[in-house]
């Protein structure tokens, strides 16, 4: 008998279509991500000059965060069935904004902790939001809103605007909204444009917050005698912090406060190497 005849190319099983289908699906998802879902971050570039406090949130990362999927999304879906859904549809029709699809990035910023601005970025159509919202507010009979140049301003102070790149700007007053219209590189107060949540706090703002914290009896006097670089904190303020050595002053007094045992546990577990206690006794 002669040698067996090898199968021709036509006779061999064709497996490549089954391999091509998953590859094409993955490639399609990648293309859709970069062309449709992923949008260059723009909101952080409109943080006004002189900002001392800014917080940025990435909508995509937050939307896929477990607690948000479990608790927030069901509330939003239930709300779509009521009166609110009709208002959303009117806003979408008048402004071209797709809610929540176009809301990819949100930034809250303040210059003086009194005036605030909300910046929302995403694939939002430029030049349409302010006129569209004015139309919606007029149809709803809302009073006090007037068109002031690029802004929609309320008589009580709040203002709405839209930057050239489509970023939405809503502020507590006209000055901070106008200051947020131009885009810049954020060198004055660099806010990380990536990550689920990022924030930046200027040293001046931190000191202002500390100055407004309620004083703890004896703590201010203790700070006056401690050398520079040695912090004096209440048990509550020390939560989440850690040092090589710690001194707990008046542990009995801490335990006597409301939820004092929890506070005392925090105070006693702040050190990694050495712990000392100073007990206070009446003379």
In words, what does this structure look like?
By secondary structure, the chain is α+β, with helices and mostly antiparallel strands. It has 2 domains: 37-204, no CATH class; 215-278, no CATH class. The protein is 37% helix and 19% strand. The protein is built from 10 helices and 10 strands. The strands form 2 sheets. The chain has an 8-stranded antiparallel sheet, sandwiched between helices. Strands 9-10 form a two-stranded parallel sheet. Mean pLDDT is 76; it is low at 30-36 and 79-83.
Biggest β-sheet, characterized? Answer: 8 strands, antiparallel
Q: Provide the spatial order of strands within the biggest beta sheet.
A: 4-5-6-7-3-2-1-8
Radius of gyration: 29 Å
| Uncertain regions spanning at least 5 consecutive residues | 30-36, 79-83
Tally of structural domains? 2
C-alpha end-to-end distance: 116 Å
Order of helices and strands: HEHHHEEHEEEEHEHHEHHE
Give the fraction of residues assigned to helices. Answer: 25-40%
Mean pLDDT: 76
Percent of residues in β-strands: 15-25%
SSE-based structural type: alpha+beta
Q: What is the total tally of β strands?
A: 10
Outline, from the CA principal axes?
elongated
Please tally the helical runs, counting DSSP H or I stretches of 4 or more residues.
10
SSE map:
Blueprint: H1 16-37, E1 53-58, H2 59-63, H3 66-79, H4 83-95, E2 105-110, E3 116-121, H5 129-139, E4 145-148, E5 151-154, E6 159-162, E7 168-171, H6 174-180, E8 197-201, H7 203-212, H8 219-225, E9 243-249, H9 251-256, H10 260-268, E10 271-278
Parallel strand pairs: 9-10
Antiparallel strand pairs: 1-2, 1-8, 2-3, 3-7, 4-5, 5-6, 6-7
Helix pairs in contact: 4-5
């Amino acid at each position: 008998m002669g040698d067996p005849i090898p199968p021709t190319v036509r006779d061999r099983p064709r497996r490549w279509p089954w391999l091509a289908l998953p590859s094409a699906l993955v490639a399609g998802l990648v293309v859709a991500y970069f062309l449709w879902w992923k949008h260059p971050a723009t909101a952080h570039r409109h943080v006004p000059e002189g900002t001392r406090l800014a917080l940025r949130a990435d909508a995509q990362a937050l939307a896929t965060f477990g607690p948000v999927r479990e608790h927030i999304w069901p509330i939003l879906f239930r709300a779509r069935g009521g009166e609110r859904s009709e208002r959303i549809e009117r806003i979408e029709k008048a402004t071209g904004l797709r809610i929540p699809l176009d809301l990819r990035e949100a930034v809250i910023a303040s210059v003086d902790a009194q005036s605030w601005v909300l910046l929302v970025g995403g694939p939002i159509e430029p030049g349409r939001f302010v006129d569209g919202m004015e139309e919606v507010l007029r149809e709803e009979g809302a009073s006090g809103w007037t068109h002031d140049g690029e802004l929609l301003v309320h008589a009580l102070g709040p203002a709405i605007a839209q930057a050239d790149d489509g970023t939405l700007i809503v502020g507590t007053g006209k000055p901070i909204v106008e200051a947020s219209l131009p885009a810049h590189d954020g060198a004055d107060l660099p806010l990380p444009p990536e990550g689920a949540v990022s924030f930046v706090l200027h040293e001046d703002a931190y000191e202002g917050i500390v100055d407004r914290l309620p004083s703890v009896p004896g703590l201010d006097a203790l700070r006056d005698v401690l050398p520079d670089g040695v912090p004096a904190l209440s048990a509550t303020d020390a939560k989440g912090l850690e040092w090589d050595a710690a001194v707990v002053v008046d542990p009995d007094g801490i335990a006597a406060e409301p939820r004092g045992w929890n506070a005392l546990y925090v105070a006693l577990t702040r050190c990694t190497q050495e712990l000392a206690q100073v007990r206070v006794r009446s003379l």
